[in-house]
Write a structure and sequence with these properties.
- It is a single chain.
- The chain has 349 residues and is of the alpha/beta class.
- The protein has 2 domains: 205 residues, Alpha-Beta Complex (Quinone Oxidoreductase, Chain A, domain 1); 127 residues, Rossmann fold, CATH 3.40.50.720.
- 27% of the residues lie in helices and 28% in strands.
- It has 10 helices and 19 strands.
- Helix 3 crosses helix 4, helix 3 packs across helix 9 and helix 6 runs parallel beside helix 7.
- The protein is globular, with a radius of gyration of 20 Å.
Amino acid sequence: MKSFMLTGIRRMEIQEIPVPKLTSDTDVLIAILTVGVCGSDIHYYLNGRIGSQVVEYPFAVGHECAGVVEAVGPAVTRVKPGDRMALDPAIACYACDQCGLGRPHTCRNLKFLGCPGQVSGCLSEYIVMPEKSCFPIRDNMSFEIAALVEPLTIGVYAVESSIPMEGARIGILGAGPIGLSVLHAALEMGAEKVYMTDIISERLKFAKDSGAHWVGNASTKDVVREIGKLEPFQLDAVFECCGQQEALDQAIDLLKPGGKLMVIGIPSIARISFNIDLLRHKEICIQNVRRQNGCVQKTLEMIDRGVLAVEDMITHRFSFEDTQAAFDMVAEYRDGVIKAIIHLSDISQ
């Protein structure tokens, strides 16, 4: 089968590798049809690492995907060949203390699709995943939208884990796919006012059109001052979705005493810092968001009900052969890109 591999910093190529085999009774072989390009994929593409996770070349990244079941192990009962699938890229052991506490997303033995040293990614014609990672989708859901489910679940989980949204006034710093996923989830769950920032004008326009009450370009205006004029008592919660130190500093300034900072963005550096004086005086609560926890089916149902209308988040489409062009576009934030989708087969059109 064909697999698009990272072969060095900003280098990729198609390689022929064996089709993966079912090694467990609960394994599922999936023909991949669509893959979304994620910011974490870009970290590996540009830097060859995220923190302690270092790429050993060649390696296939990618974890936002959808496809069709090709074969199943003898113990699989929930899915069958021919079923259309969205995938949860996390593979938990369901045996450790964290899994027992209902936290499989922080499983002691967690493996993740497209993560170096764990599982090869979905930029391949076929992958094998455990049955628990497979979620059937309805016939009227496109494979493109199914590939978006993974980032959308992060937004749903982040909002659910933050504060009660009914009547809340919140900030979202970063209007990329994760920030927009948070926006959709927050509006659905009752946020009264949503303030969003970014440095790309096309993304800000999209956020405004998607329901944000105020948007501001952090590269051209003092967004803390501007939001402060509208919210003199400050914000209940801020979701940092861009992985930038400046945004983290802005978040602390924007939060009211007792407010909550949700850290979702992945910085490209190993350490970040906070003004401990402000944190202490405001008694700010900081919570990191580790992917998502049990929100895939809920997100699928929200899409089916029409409360997550996210089709327009997909701004660019690429063939499998043009995968590196997709990565370059996302890495350079060209042409107002929000979400780039790679098609491995015409069946996903």
